[in-house]
Amino acid sequence: DTGVSQNPRHKITKRGQNVTFRCDPISEHNRLYWYRQTLGQGPEFLTYFQNEAQLEKSRLLSDRFSAERPKGSFSTLEIQRTEQGDSAMYLCASSLSQVNTEAFFGQGTRLTVV
Amino acid sequence: DAKTTQPTSMDCAEGRAANLPCNHSTISGNEYVYWYRQIHSQGPQYIIHGLKNNETNEMASLIITEDRKSSTLILPHATLRDTAVYYCIVMNAGGTSYGKLTFGQGTILTVHP
To answer: How far is B112 from chain A (nearest CA, A)?
Structure first.
């Protein structure tokens, strides 16, 4: 296992289009997190899963955003009707579901909405 | 989760130790101190974490004051590749939200030749 994998690495889309990103976590990690990072800012939490259950969603996650983690393995983040303000780096991280552990991040998907 | 305060930027000469401070005066007893770094256009990289004891791994050392209100990340021999944004994060170890990281602005560390 080479770590958290995210695809695609880059996505350019026209405003109004739908986009979907995929995250493959480290295989034994049952927690999976999504973050968003805009230029010059630290990452901001969006949502997280424990196995297939989505346990928390940030208020940043508008109704145009939906995340799934079927079967508790990979996860997808979909943005519908993209807006220019959605342009950002979308980061995925995974961890074990225990205290005193660390989360490992993928390289992110950079979304540009034109 | 407790809030952290870090200097906006720091410089360090290559080969010297880089000491990055972090203030977390409102930290509570079950909150861990985590350090991550982010090199330009990459995902954050885990460095080290601790509760109250000093910790050391192959990347760095973490010194936590006895009252736990502040900590210092030490990179013992900084290299040019250590140039990055360093984030100090306090995370609650209890409840269902543990593992969720709240990033601040971090410290931009620049290592000079």
So the answer is: 22
Query: What is the rounded distance in angstroms from the CA atom of residue B6 to the CA atom of residue A104?
Result: 22
Q: How many CA atoms lie within 13 A of B62 on its CB side?
A: 26
The DSSP-derived string for chain A is --S-EEE-SEEEE-TT--EEEEEE--TT--EEEEEEE-TTS--EEEEEEETTEEEEE-TTS-TTEEEE-GGGS-EEEEESS--GGG-EEEEEEEE-SSSS---EE---EEEEE-
Residues 31..90 of A with a Cβ closer than 8 Å to B: which? 31, 33, 35, 41-45, 48, 55-56
pLDDT class of B100 with cuts at 50, 70, 90: confident
Give the tens place of pLDDT for each residue, B19-34.
Answer: 999 999 999 888 999 9
Q: Give yes or no for a contact between A4 and A20, defined as CB atoms under 8 angstroms apart.
A: no
Contacts of A69 (CB under 8 A, 6+ apart): A32, A49, A51, A52, A54, A75, A76
pLDDT 10s digits, B52-72: 999 999 999 999 999 999 999
Tokens 């901001």 label which residue? A44
| Nearest-CA distance A42 → chain B (Å) | 5
**CB distance A102–B46 less than 8 Å?**
yes
Q: Nearest residue of A to residue B92 by CA position?
A: A99
Mean pLDDT of chain A: 94
Percent of chain A with pLDDT over 70: 99
